[in-house]
Specification:
Layout (H helix, E strand, L loop, with lengths): L2 E7 L20 H10 L16 H5 L2 H9 L14 E6 L8 H8 L20 H11 L5 E5 L2 H15 L3 E4 L4 E7 H20 L6 E8 L7 E2 L4 E4 L7 H7 L4 E4 L2 H4 L7 E3 L4 H14 L5 E6 L1 H7 L4 H20 L5 E6 L18 E6 L6 E6 L3 H10 L20
The structure holds 1-O-phosphono-alpha-D-ribofuranose and manganese (II) ion (MN) (2 copies).
One manganese (II) ion (MN) binds next to helix 4.
């Protein structure tokens, strides 16, 4: 019996990317800067958390060692006691974008070597013919925004006008995205989804990675809140991923959180969504119970990124890591002989960094399994090594990208 559980802590980078300079991110390090802030008492918040970053379970899987591997510098924030069968390493991204689909597709064995389309940081950000087509084909009287913006700020700025006029708020960022915020009740959730599907078709020729529905509630600038009815409309991966290879042979891929959306529902057997990291963790545990021989549970924990990384909320990010870590023993307790658990990330989002965008970083590759020897898997040249390791573990033939480290951790031949 072999099963694999892949948990992505969205945006939990560990620094050290060789090409960070090219992205304006030289020195960015999500984990290290959070740990430093915590150690110096700069991430204390009443009734939320205080003191040094406390993630003993991830530390015992080798998070500190992985951090050292990523940067080449010893990481002093955690002890070095490891679980006997834990493995640890770091991985460099070869995809050109530091976005969520690029990170996840590369993890699943498909590096993204082409360039996505991006909208310039100008006002307007969208080409005039695209805007005209969105209005005409989306049957709205106009659009608001039409610029680069953080999602919470733009709702505060245009939300009341949106309610008054019915014009959706359209914005973008350094990522290949066109995001559309609209009120769940006044505009309507279904209408927002339909509008996004129209826009998805319109931006296909521009190679835009995702159109994202960003519904919100509230009646005034000070009270608007985004809801968990966010929906991502991604382009499908251009080649088969690990997920397609698994489902093609009849194995199940259970997608927890936004994994289904990220892969445009290709190679997905079942989607399980929930609101918030902790509810998502419950879903992931349930999926672990339900997975059978040859199956993969692929979970994404998005709050790290959306609620704390983009919001540059260091204390919030630290608290979210600590909350996740407190739940980890529940997942470890479910591991049986033949199981492989890997914790990783898709890019960085250093909450101490300038701006509000992702940061180019290496990612942790830590995990364990009762039948494994564990050990140091070193610095992996591509995230695809994760997917290839899962592929080998689940008995698939090697794919086109990446190198399995299965033998290094004492996996069965
Ligand atoms: O500021 P918000 O709306 O959260 O946007 C963020 O979320 C998008 C998708 O994850 C990213 O491209 C980033 O711009
Ligand atoms: Mn992400
Ligand atoms: Mn993000």
């Amino acid at each position: 019996m072999a099963r694999a559980f892949l948990f992505v802590l969205d945006s939990f980078g560990i620094g050290g990317a060789a090409d960070a300079e090219r992205y304006g991110d030289a020195g960015a390090n999500t984990l290290a800067h959070i740990a430093e802030a915590c150690a110096e008492g700069r991430a204390d918040r009443e009734r939320l958390r205080q003191g040094p970053l406390f993630v003993p379970h991830m530390a015992s899987l080798g998070l500190g060692k992985a951090a050292g591997t990523a940067t080449g510098l010893a990481f002093a924030h955690f002890g070095t006691d490891l679980l006997a069968n834990a493995f640890h390493g770091a991985a460099q991204e070869v995809s050109s974008g530091k976005d969520t689909p690029s990170g996840h597709w590369e993890i699943a064995g498909l590096p993204v070597r082409f360039d996505w389309g991006y909208f310039p940081d100008t006002v307007p950000a969208f080409p005039a013919d695209l805007t005209a087509a969105m209005i005409r084909e989306g049957e709205v009287s106009g659009i608001l925004g039409n610029c680069h913006a953080p999602g919470t700020e733009i709702i505060e700025r245009f939300g009341e006008e949106h309610i008054r006029t019915g014009k959706p708020i359209c914005y973008t960022s350094v990522d290949s995205v066109l995001q559309i915020a609209a009120h769940e009740v006044h505009f309507g959730l279904e209408r927002l989804y339909e509008f996004c599907q129209v826009v998805r078709r319109l931006v296909d020729p521009l190679r835009i990675g995702r159109v994202i529905a960003r519904p919100f509630v509230g009646e005034t600038a000070g009270t608007f809140q985004r809801t968990y009815n966010r929906h991502d409309y991604a382009v499908p991966p251009p080649e088969p991923t690990l997920l397609d290879r698994l489902t093609a042979r009849g194995s199940r891929v259970i997608a927890v959180g936004k994994i289904g959306d990220i892969f445009a529902h290709r190679g997905i057997s079942e989607v399980r969504k929930a609101a918030g990291n902790m509810a998502m963790f419950d879903k992931a545990l349930g999926a672990m119970d339900d997975a059978g021989d040859g199956d993969l549970v692929f979970a994404n924990f998005v709050d790290f990124d959306t609620e704390f990384g983009h919001r540059r909320d260091v204390a919030g990010y630290a608290a979210a890591l600590e909350a996740f870590d407190r739940r980890l023993p529940e997942a470890l307790a479910k591991l049986q002989q033949g199981d492989l658990l890997i914790l990783t990330a898709d890019h960085g989002n250093d909450p101490t960094w300038r701006g509000t965008d992702h940061t180019r970083e290496r990612i942790p590759v830590i995990g364990t399994g009762p039948g494994l020897r564990g050990g140091d898997v070193g610095l992996r040249a591509t995230f695809a090594d994760i997917g290839e390791t899962v592929a080998e573990h689940l008995g698939l033939a090697p794919g086109r990208h990446g190198t399995s480290f299965h033998a290094m951790i004492g996996g069965h031949a």
